[in-house]
Amino acid sequence: MAATLSFPRPVFAKLSPHPYLLRNLSPADPVANPPARTNGRRPRESRPVHVNASSLSHAHGSALVRSGDTTVICGVRGEILPVSQIPLFRPRENHYGPAAAAAAAAGDGPDGLGLGLGLGRGELKDYDLLVPNIELATGAAPQFLPGVPPTALAQTLSTRVYSLLHGTGMVEGGDLRVWFRPSSAAAAAAGVGGEDVDMGEEGVEEEEEQQVVAYWVLYIDLLFVSFDGNPFDAAWAAVVAALRDTKLPVARWDPDREMVVCSRTETRRLNVRGLPVACSAAVFVEKEHGEAGAGENRHWLLLDPDRLEESLCREVVTMVVDCSEGETRVKSIEKQGGTVLGRELIRGFASVAEERWNEVKKAMK
Question: According to the UniProt record, where is the region Disordered (predicted)?
Fold first, then answer.
C-alpha cells in the first residue's frame, strides 16, 4: 500500500491559505469544533490590547500600543508657531477675550449671528496645527525594506489619521492658542506693553481683551516596531493614548523680547474630548477572487484581522465609536472594496465596535 503524502498544519496553511482558513471556519461538526480562524481566534474575537503611556522621555506625550504582534509607538511634541509666521492669518472674533466672545455669542458680531465662536476647529486645518506622520520600520514585516521611499500604506494611514483627528474634534484650536493681554494702564497710556497670559488662563477680567500671539503645533509621529495586520486600529489607539498623555509647557508672551517664552517647570495637560476607538473587520468569502460556481457564496466577518487574513480578504470595514458620554456615537464609517457588507450588516457591526471600545478603554486606564 502506497504511503499517503501529508503536510503539517503550518505548512498547509502557507501552501494553501484560503482553503485552510475556509476549512477552519466551516468545520464538519460546528458543535464539537466551533468555527475558528488560522490563528485560533473566533471570527469576532479581537487580539488583546496593551497600552503603555509616557513611553518616551523627550516628548510632551507618548504611548506604546501592542495588539497581538502589531506594535506601534506614538510621540507628540509641540512647537510654537507665532502668528507673524502664518501668511494668511486673519484674527477672528473668538481670538479675543471674554468681552468679544460674549458679544459674538449674543449675536453682536460682524455677521450678526454670533457665528465663528466655536472652539477653533477651522484653525486646526487653516494653520496646520495637527501634523501626523507614520513610519513603517525596516524589519517590522518582510515587505518593509531599507532605503526605500515612504510606502503607499504609510501615506494612506497618515491621511486617515489626519482626517479622523479633525473629524472627531478631540483637540480644538482654542486649546492650542497662546494668549497675550495688554495691561489696562499701558494700553491706556501708549497701547503697548502689558502682562502676559498663558494658554487658556481663567479668571481674566472681562474688560481686558486677550489677543492670540501664537499657536502650539502638535507633531504626532508614529513608528511601527512590528506589523501583523490591522495597522489603523493600533495607530489610532496610540494617537489617542499619546494625546491624553500630552502636557504642554505653560507659554507666555514676553513683550520686551517680542517672543513666546515657555516655562521649564509649569505644564498644562492638553484637553482631549471623548475617547474615539477604531474597530476594523475584514470580510472573508468562501470562493476565491475570480472563482466561478453556482450556489451561495458564504462569508465571515473577521474582527481585527492579522496580516495573513488581510491578504485573503478584499473587503474591510472600519467603524470609529465613542461611548464616553453614556451613549454610542458613531464618529466615522469607512468601507473599502467588495459588495458583501450592506447597511444591515454594518448597522449590526456597531455592537461589535461597542465591545471593542470597552476593551480599549480598560487598556488605557
Answer: 24-55
Going by DSSP bridges, is the β-strand pair 61-67/49-53 parallel, antiparallel, or unpaired?
Answer: antiparallel
Burial of 91 (0-12, 13-18, 19+ CB in 10 A): exposed
Nearest 5°: CA angle at 330, between 53 and 216? 45
Residues 105-143: tens digit of each pLDDT: 444 433 332 333 345 678 899 999 999 999 998 888 888
**Extents of the domains making up the chain:** 17-46+277-364, 49-269
DSSP characters for 96-146? S-HHHHHHHHTT-STTSS-TT-SSSHHHHHHTT-EEEEEEE-TTSSTT--T
CATH class of 49-269: alpha beta
Residue 240: which of 140, 139, 364 has the closest Cα? 364
Strand partners, 267: 249
Coil, helix or strand for 52? strand
Contacts of 213 (CB under 8 A, 6+ apart): 82, 83, 178, 179, 180, 253, 260
* CB distance 313 to 235 below 8 Å: no
Asked if residue 47 has pLDDT above 60, the reply is yes
State residue 81's pLDDT score.
95
Report the C-alpha dihedral over residues 9, 13, 15, 18, rounded to 10 degrees: 140
DSSP structural state of residue 337: S
Range with the largest mean pLDDT of 18-27, 64-73, 92-101: 64-73
Task: Give the length of the chain.
Answer: 365
Neighbours of 210 (CB within 10 A): 20
For residue 202, the model assigns a pLDDT of 46
Q: What is the DSSP annotation of 160-219? A: HHHHHHHHHTSS-GGGGEEEEE--HHHHHHTS---EE--TT-----TTSPPEEEEEEEEE
Predicted TM-score (pTM) of the model is 0.84
Q: What is the dihedral of CA 64, 66, 72, 76, to 10 degrees?
A: -30
Give the bridge partners for 245, in sequence order: none
